[in-house]
């Protein structure tokens, strides 16, 4: 008879624990503005890298469609890189650097300088 009461009690306890964890995670996420710490850090970097990539693309007189075809990705991927929603892979970043006629190191240094300038404001 004890097992008949224990199993539903444990199940109910498990549901309460899961609900508490979900509420704690939602509250923590809301306090961070809906972004995880790592995601927010990546967004800072990708925004500035995206700005640098967009500036080089425009300097070269290229469209997002042309860049996408040259790199072998979708137009949406290039748009996400330039808007800071995602970052290109290392291989794609190297291809972009070659396409824009600059070194990958220069792209990253410019993005870092842009990030520092943005933080200083």
Automatic annotation (TrEMBL):
The keyword Nucleus does not apply. Keywords: DNA-binding, Membrane, Transmembrane, Transmembrane helix. InterPro entries: Cro/C1-type_HTH (IPR001387), Lambda_DNA-bd_dom_sf (IPR010982). Residues 53-107 form the HTH cro/C1-type domain. The keyword Transferase does not apply. The chain crosses the membrane at residues 6-28. SMART domains: HTH_XRE. This is Helix-turn-helix transcriptional regulator.
């Amino acid at each position: 008879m004890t097992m008949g009461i224990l199993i539903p009690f444990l199940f109910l306890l498990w549901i309460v624990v899961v609900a508490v964890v979900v509420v704690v995670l939602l509250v923590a996420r809301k306090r961070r503005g809906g972004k995880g710490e790592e995601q927010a850090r990546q967004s800072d970097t990708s925004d500035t890298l995206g700005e640098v990539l967009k500036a080089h693309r425009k300097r070269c007189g290229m469209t997002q469609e042309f860049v996408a075809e040259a790199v072998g990705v979708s137009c949406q991927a290039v748009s996400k890189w330039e808007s800071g929603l995602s970052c290109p892979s290392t291989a794609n970043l190297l291809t972009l650097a070659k396409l824009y006629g600059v070194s990958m190191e220069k792209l990253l240094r410019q993005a870092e300088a842009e990030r520092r300038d943005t933080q200083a404001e």
